Each structure stands twice: as C-alpha cells, then as structure tokens.
Amino acid sequence: MEGQTTAGASLTIRCIYMLLALYERPRTVDELLDYLADKQLPKVSKRSLQRNLEDLEGYFGLYRRERHALNSPDTWALAQPEFERLLELEDPVALALVIAQQQLEELGPVSVFAPVTSLFERAREQLAARTSTASKWLERVAVGASSHRLIGPDLNEEQAQRLLEVALKQVAVRLHYHPHQGDPAEVLRATALAVFYRGAVAYLVIRDHENDRLRQLPFSRISEVREVITEAPRVHDFNLAEYRASGALAFKYGEPFWLEAIVFNSVRREIEDAPLGEGQELFELPEQPSCRLLKVKVPYTLNLIQWLLARAAYIKVISPVPFREKLREELKRALANFEGETLQVPKKRNFGDAQES
C-alpha cells in the first residue's frame, strides 16, 4: 500500500483509521499501532504516530485522558458527540431512513434489517434533536400496514406536498373535500394535525372546526388546500402516538376483548409463533386432534374482522357470544349478496361493542 499512495495520502488514510479506532473505544499509541497493523496499513513508528495524534489534538473531539500515574502511557479518546457531527446525515436523508424503517417494520422480518439498525437509530436521534421541518415527521407522521395493500392513488405532487406541509406546521386550513370521485366539493375549515400512510394511501388527519371531531381524509379526495391565517389552529392536546395507540388509525370498533375459538391446523400454523393478540393460548382438543382451542385477547378492529372472515371456513368462534352473532350476521349478509340478484346494502352497521348483542 505504501508504494501505491503518496506520503500525504498515506497520512490522511492513517489519521482516518486512527479516528475510527478511537471512536470504538479509547486506546494507547501501542494499541493504535496494533489496530493499524490489523488493517494492513503501512508501518509507522510509535513516535510518528504520537506526533500525528498531537497534531490532531483538539480537533474532531480528539483529546488525551488524564494520566492515573506519572509513568503510564497516554490514552487517547474521542468526544463522541463532537466527532459524530462529522458523520451527520442531511435531514432529508435521515427522514428517508426513518420512514424506510417504519415501512420495513410493517413488512418484516425485522431480523433481516438488524445490520442497518444502528443507522436507522442514528437518523432517528438526529431528527429528534432538530427543529427542522423534516424532524417534525417523528411527531406528526406515522406509517402502518393495510390489510390488503392497495395501489397508491395518482396524486398531484404539488398538492400532496402542500398537504404534508400544513400537517407538519399544524395550521388552520380550508379544504375542498370530495367524499367520492365526481362529488361536489365539501368546504371544510379545520386544523391539519398529522399525516398517516395506510400502505401506499396517504391520509390527512384533521380536527373539523364545525364539530371539533377528528377525521382522516385521503389525499386523493382533497382538491384544494389553503392555509387560513385569520383563524387560530385547534391542535389542543392532540398527540399522534396516543391517537394511533387508541386504534383510531386501524378502523377501531371497540375495546380489546377475549376471543375464544376452535381453529384448524392451517390457522394454528399461522398464529402459533406469531400470536393473534396478547395472552394467546392454544389447547389440545382430544376429540378433534387436527384442531386447537384458541384463547386470546384481540383488538376490536376492521383488520381483525377481515382476518377472521378470510379464514371463516377454518375457524369456529365460540365467545364472546355477541361477537359470534355479529360475525354470523356478516356472513349471512355476504351470502345473501352472492345468492341475490342485486346488492343488498345493510341499513345498520353490524359491528360495535363485542360484548353487546
């Protein structure tokens, strides 16, 4: 390597490796010499290396630790926060990494991404310490999986960017919202609070000023957005993490409940190692060796109901009885539509409190 680089380039490479070694942990000059030898760098004298360190002292967070004895060797160390400023990512890059991590966590398996976990965490910590627009994503934007991944709508990029900006600033806005394609616009006055991605579909979370209700509006249904500077925003105590934990972003029908059901082996294989919910237990059924009795606490969400309906031929729900009856009613409605000539739309929502009939 010595013959392939100039003296200046060799010195630069040596200094970079020294700083990286000290970033791992403090070291003496002798330990640094061993480290450089392991990296197959050109040999250098102990005195030269000491001079290099003295020249760099005070830069990039490099300093000498206080000696515990007069004859003890110098131990060199790095003030990590100061050195890490050299490794900082641009905020948009850090933001891309944070969002990528959220998306990857939904896709799994998480273990595959272990080698880049430290990079994801570095990006998150950097944004958490900033007040830039990009850093506000940590508080005001969440990513979650959809039960069936829809193809993302064709959005106007400028419009989508404006919607994102008002959510990051949490300002009062006037929106033109269309419940369905071709519907006339409903003019809403609201406070933009956050953005939520359900798969590839973006939603603007707002507080409607007419009734103070929180709503989620698809970006694709908003044709116009304007910031209203004459009206105060109504953020109140909105917190995206708490809002998400409440189940509001998952089409929540009620509080979590204990589900008891008999499941066939095909379902058992799905949930044995990846539980359907908290406190899951599977019990043998001597009279049905290819089945198991399932007891588990589940969230009462649309995703759960869709999951159960998709496996209805392999699951027998036992309790709670009111929920079992609601599931039966949903299946009856579906069967009626298959057997009838026209689509029969229910006049009343079927699912509600799992414990109530």
Automatic annotation (TrEMBL):
Residues 162-226 form the WYL domain. InterPro entries: CBASS_pafABC_assoc_protein (IPR051534), WCX_dom (IPR057727), WYL_dom (IPR026881). It comes from the Bacteria. Residues 266-335 form the WCX domain. This is Uncharacterized protein. The lineage of its organism: Bacteria, Pseudomonadati, Pseudomonadota, Gammaproteobacteria, Alteromonadales.
